[in-house]
Amino acid sequence: MAVKLKGDIDLKTAPSIMQKALKINLNQNIYGTFSEIGAGQETARNFFRAGASSGTIAKAMSAYSKEFSDSIYGRENDGRYVTKPRLLKMLKHETDLMEERLDRSQTPDRIYFSYANTVSTIDFSKKNKGHGWVGIRFQMSPLEEYNQIILHIRFHENDSKHQQITLGKLGVNLIYGAFYHHDDPRELLISLYDHIDKDKIEIDMINFSGPRFAFVDNRLMSLLLVKNGFTDAVMFGPDGFNILPADELYKKNILALRGSFRPVTRLAMDMLTKGKEKFLENNDVDPDKEEIIFEMTLDNLTQEGDINEKDFLDRVNLLSSLGQYVMVSNFREYYRLVEYFARFTKEKMGLIIGANHLMKLFDANYYKHLSGGIMEAMGKMFEKNLKLYIYPYVEKGSEKIMCSKNIEIPEDQNLLFEYLDKKNKFIDIENYEKKLLRTYTRDLIKQIQRGDAGWEKLVPEGIDDLIKKQNLFGYKKLRDQ
């Protein structure tokens, strides 16, 4: 059952924040609560300012006192307040109260919602710009189970008042989107930035749930966050579900392997296994605080000018089947990936790369956009607690096994390379499986698509069965017929 729009206003163009709030207020069936902790009641304020809010707002509150907040929602096990569990408790508590205290027989067409946020804005030192959790729990029919949208945000503005205003706009966009764009989650996602500049706030995780979103794959929604420039990177756990990078990477030793993983190969797994051995050996890393990441860039996912979403999900599913964490980022340059990791940890970091990519790393043409060129890029990259683990590479048609000791570096970068080498920033992986060196992904894909025999030996155990059963990457069962 769709929302009835009695007395609703008709908006032909993208509505302003005030128009959105007014449209909600004029809808006689939408009724709910606002619970905002940490940045003022900016979202509720927009609805009050729009007018006609008496029929929409059942309650607006801010439980700023920790003791008072705990008495309402309970105390978190970790003692924190700006967390996902806190947000979920707030949303459920407020909808439960409405169900308990309001008589539906008096307003049979009324649908309830609960909007909540728990955030921390910029501190006095302006070193921590703040972050938070924002969400809505809502119905589209009085007899329907609740739907839910939750998201995590990071503030980028340098003034708390500006952050409050931006958060208030985001809240209105979320509530409006829930009721008027729920049938098109992609449009809903885009609309969250209506009248908000991307550089003011970052959404780095979003999850849809409930009967109206039963068809939504949250991994694709996360991919759209990166594709649309709303965040730089998203992560998925071994179970394939979205996870917040900040929570997963916080104070961890991070080891990452970049690739297209179309499909994941035995070569990639050998790079990971042998790279991890070196990482633990040379960095004295605590295995209990280690995070292994398979990272793909948007470029890795692009085919013929656009992203093939099924292909993306196929890759994530295969990696998840191997128990791996997956990251998708828009970091073309490695130094940007390292800077991103450094936002969450000061512990040791490692990147596993092929010797051919090490050569490209010292190509100054990749850094022309930086005022300091390659020197600036290397400074940003290696000022962190980072080492590169170099897996050997053999070019097609060649017998030369390349490593950090024999690759060809541009002459004008030799001194920089030698300096970093002396600092022990490049660690060659030596106990590799030589027979895997001639695995070339493009050739492998062609073999899969032609149905050639023997390609199964180039992928990890079980991956070949998944590719065949699900007809992934254009697999054709020619040889078996």
Coarse morphology: elongated
What is the arithmetic mean of pLDDT? Answer: 92
> What is the percent of helical residues?
25-40%
Structural class: alpha/beta
Rg calc? 26 Å
**Which CATH C-level class of the largest domain is it?**
Alpha Beta
Main pleated sheet:
8 strands, mixed
In DSSP terms (H or I, runs of 4 or more residues), the helix count works out at: 17
Number of strands: 16
Instruction: Give the strand line-up of the largest sheet.
Output: 8-7-13-10-9-14-15-16
Oligomeric nature of the chains: single chain
Compute the separation of the termini in Å. Answer: 50 Å
Spans of at least 5 consecutive residues whose pLDDT stays below 50 are 1-9
What is the name of the CATH topology of the largest domain? Maf protein
Q: What's the CATH H-level homologous superfamily of the largest domain?
A: CinA-like
The CATH architecture category of the largest domain equals Alpha-Beta Complex
- How large is the share of residues in beta strands? 15-25%
Number of domains: 3
Explained architecture:
- The chain has 481 residues and is α/β, with parallel strands linked by helices.
- It folds into three domains: 17-216, Alpha-Beta Complex (Maf protein), CATH 3.90.950; 246-436, Rossmann fold; 441-474, no CATH class.
- Helix content is 37%, strand content 19%.
- It contains 17 helices and 16 strands.
- The chain has helices at 17-26, 42-50, 66-73, 84-101, 160-180, 185-191, 218-227, 245-249, 266-283, 298-301, 309-321, 334-342, 355-361, 373-382, 414-422, 441-450, 463-470; strands at 30-37, 57-61, 111-120, 131-138, 147-155, 201-209, 233-236, 242-243, 253-258, 290-297, 302-303, 306-307, 325-329, 349-354, 386-391, 426-428.
- It has an eight-stranded mixed β-sheet with strand order 8-7-13-10-9-14-15-16, with helices on both faces.
- Strand 1 (30-37), helix 2 and strand 2 (57-61) form a beta-alpha-beta unit.
- Helix 1 (17-26) packs across helix 2 (42-50), helix 1 packs across helix 5 (160-180) and helix 12 (334-342) runs parallel beside helix 14.
- The longest helix has 21 residues, at 160-180.
- The radius of gyration is 26 Å and the shape is elongated.
- Mean pLDDT is 92; it is low at 1-9.
